[in-house]
Design a protein that fits this description.
207 residues; alpha+beta; 7 strands; globular
């Protein structure tokens, strides 16, 4: 660790990476364009980043059928909260620090849509009826007031070859059941965990 040379200022950072081109620096907008709306309508997945009052961070995946993010108006979107593990790390962060960052993915596309803004937790609203999936009406929604929105280039996806099936290796790491037994539920047998995370697991997504 003592041999690491740390960057300590933006000036030093800029000496290393340079400055963005004007078209990159100025590409952010403060409201939704029709193209942003079309992207959100096709996106089934996003990651939402939050930070608590003490600066501790969280990045949580959110996924549902394409179009799960509801556009309320040109500067406001809503994301349904579905049943999960109840840790609520990101939700608790929003209660004390509303600043959030979201990245929206469209499978097969390398570019992504980024949104930064301020979030609130809403426990009920008429638009919840538009978020019902498999009979599940969300108990919460994250409503985000957009401050910045822009598209991010595909270089990370091209470098990682993320969408190329020949690079995938889902069995090269321990199964979900093995991970649970080793790190989370050592009292349960592997057979029990494999059954829990087996084909019927998908039937529990909305309950």
């Amino acid at each position: 660790m003592d041999t690491m040379a740390e960057v300590g200022s933006e000036e030093e950072l800029r000496e290393l990476i340079g400055h963005p081109l004007p078209r990159v620096r100025d590409k952010e907008r403060g409201s939704l364009h029709e193209i942003h709306r079309r992207w959100l309508a096709r996106s089934p997945f996003c990651v939402i980043a939050t930070a608590g009052a003490d600066g501790a961070c969280d990045a949580s995946p959110k996924g549902d059928p394409p179009g799960f993010t509801l556009v309320l108006d040109d500067t406001t979107i809503a994301i349904p909260e579905r049943p999960g593990n109840r840790r609520a790390d990101g939700l608790r962060n929003i209660l004390v620090n509303p600043h959030v960052g979201l990245t929206y993915f469209v499978p097969g596309r390398g570019d992504t849509l980024r949104i930064n803004g301020r979030a609130r937790l809403i426990k009920d609203a008429p638009f919840f009826d538009l978020m019902i999936v498999q009979g599940h009406r969300p108990s919460l929604a994250i409503v985000v007031e957009i401050e910045q929105i822009f598209f991010h280039c595909a270089k990370a996806f091209l470098r990682s070859r993320l969408w190329q099936p020949e690079t995938w290796g889902p069995d090269s790491v321990p199964s979900r059941a093995l991970i649970a037994q080793a790190l989370e539920r050592p009292e349960d047998s592997l057979e029990e965990l494999e059954r829990y995370y087996g084909p019927d697991y998908a039937k529990k997504l909305y309950r």
